[in-house]
TrEMBL record:
Protein name per the record: MFHA1 protein
Name of encoding gene: Mfhas1_0
InterPro entries: P-loop_NTPase
Length: 218
């Protein structure tokens, strides 16, 4: 909901635990709940903006109001839910086909037809090579300038500049190959070449009843 022009594909697992009629009924129910959730979000944002604009100290909340308006303008496209049986490989393949079909939809993803300069592919291949090298630490974290120097040591990337690398990293971040939080001051000079390591860390930290679990430790 905080990402501009998001496209979300809901997936319903455990379809094998329901009959065909139940699957369709649950699919419709879930989609209606999602629709209600989006409507509630829109209503809440409008309510918050209205309250800030009507406040006696409205000038103190300009930044907050602008941020809320920005969120209000974000479009969120919800695709039809795909029910699957995770124990059936044919269902997994069907899900893959549905995802590919949507990704190739130029109306949903206008950038799918964008032609990338050859250097983008060259840098992408080089970064994959660096990430898979034996000298790369398991966490996959690398200083931005060190990454630039590593890439520039390759003959075909010797003229690679910092600004061009940052443009390429933004693209690779969007497609999920790497993670680069350039908007976070303490992380702007760190590139995560192994996004799956971050997922592992998040799974350890963001969990159900985490506070209670920590408090139970003597």
């Amino acid at each position: 909901m905080r990402v501009p022009n998001s496209v979300v594909l809901p997936v319903g697992t455990h379809a094998d635990c329901c009959g065909e009629a139940d699957v369709e009924e649950k699919r419709c129910h879930i989609m209606s709940k999602i629709g209600a959730m989006l409507q509630e979000r829109k209503s809440n944002l409008s309510h918050f903006i209205h309250n800030l604009e009507g406040s006696e100290d409205a000038e103190l909340y300009v930044d907050q109001r602008e941020r809320l308006k920005e969120l209000e303008n974000h479009t969120l496209t919800i695709l039809n839910l795909v029910p699957i049986n995770c124990t059936d490989r044919r269902d997994i393949q069907r899900l893959e086909a549905v995802i590919l079909e949507h990704v190739r939809n130029e109306e949903l993803f206008p950038e799918v037809v964008r032609v990338l300069p050859p250097v983008y592919r060259q840098v992408e291949a080089a970064i994959v090579d660096v990430a898979q090298s034996e000298e790369m630490a398991e966490h996959g974290m690398m200083d931005l300038q060190y990454l630039l120097s590593k890439l520039c040591h390759r003959e075909h990337l010797a003229s690679l500049g910092g600004e061009l690398l940052q443009d390429i990293l933004r693209y690779l971040h969007r497609v999920g190959l790497i993670i680069w939080y350039e908007e976070i001051k303490h992380l702007e000079n760190t590139v995560f070449l192994q996004p799956t390591f971050l997922i592992t860390i998040f799974k350890l930290l963001v969990r159900y009843r985490l506070v209670q679990q920590l408090e139970s430790i003597s």
